[in-house]
Design brief:
The protein is globular, with a radius of gyration of 24 Å. The protein has a two-stranded antiparallel ribbon with strand order 1-2. By secondary structure, the chain is mainly α. The protein contains eleven helices and two strands, in the order ααααααββααααα. Strand 1 and strand 2 form a beta hairpin. The chain starts with a helix and ends with a helix.
């Protein structure tokens, strides 16, 4: 399994964060099966094309498949890191992970449909599709665009909120996990990063709800706020982290200097 190879090579390991799991748990085994099923659902067709026209039509869906696959892989890797860091298997973690898996499977089709439509528009292709009964329809009507963006936005909000709650739960278990102060700080940073992604989804949904069809395009471009938000958050949390480590180092240094003095005065 891919997860086994990553664990063996220590992919994702950080010097300041101890891994508490080096083996695949039953939760992760189930998760891998669900993610694999979700990727299977992304495939355009399970049948081998019989003609070049069918092959060419299948290839048109490659771009949307690649983007959707990359997004699923990002979620899978985020879950992989979480279980390497914390190895939690309590009821709350199982429930949250199950919720994440449900969202992954449920939103596979809306995810692929959205990017198929967008790539068709960007490449100036035809948005007309031939159904199994031979009739031709548009992929989506103008009045349905708002609903599509809301569905996608709510899915994004739900997924990243669940990931954030997982990290908040890990922080709440800091005593059991014996998190160091730096590990606790990094745990909260991961929670804030996921909340930032969810917040962008909320902004996009609110734009569509408030502005309707005329705000659909703007709501789509709102997702470009994600790299901006993550960059700002990374820089600000990075500065705080350096100061925090410096304060811990200073405190440890003061304690080590004070200890001999206290011992001498006691004599």
């Amino acid at each position: 399994m891919i997860r086994d190879k990553l664990i063996e090579r220590g992919v994702g390991a950080e010097s300041d964060f101890r891994w508490r799991s080096h083996e695949i748990t039953r939760i992760e085994g189930l998760s891998d099966a669900v993610f694999a099923f979700a990727v299977t659902l992304l495939v355009v067709s399970l049948e081998v094309p019989k003609t070049f026209d069918e092959l060419w039509q299948t290839m048109h869906g490659f771009g949307a498949f690649a983007i959707s696959f990359a997004m699923l892989l990002q979620l899978w890797y985020a879950q992989y890191l979480f279980f390497r860091r914390y190895a939690l298997q309590d009821a709350i973690t199982v429930t949250l992970n199950a919720t994440l898996l449900f969202l992954v499977v449920f939103y596979v089709y809306p995810l692929k449909f959205l990017f198929t439509f967008l790539l068709t528009i960007w490449t100036r292709g035809s948005t007309s599709v031939r159904l199994s009964d031979g009739t031709i329809h548009e992929m989506i009507r103008q009045d349905q665009l708002s609903a599509l963006m809301i569905v996608y936005g709510l899915g994004m909000v739900a997924v990243f909120t669940v990931l954030a709650v997982l990290y908040f739960h890990a922080r709440r278990k800091r005593a059991l996990l014996e998190l160091t102060p730096v590990e606790e700080f990094d745990t909260m940073t991961s929670a804030y990063q996921n909340l930032a992604n969810a917040a962008v989804g909320v902004i996009s949904v609110l734009m569509v709800v408030a502005g309707g069809l005329r705000m659909v395009a703007v709501a789509g471009f709102a997702y470009f706020l994600i790299p901006i938000a993550q960059t700002f958050l990374g820089m600000s949390r990075g500065r705080l982290r350096r100061r925090f480590i410096a304060s811990l180092t200073s405190a440890d240094s003061f304690t080590s200097r004070a200890a001999p003095e206290d011992s001498a005065s006691g004599q």
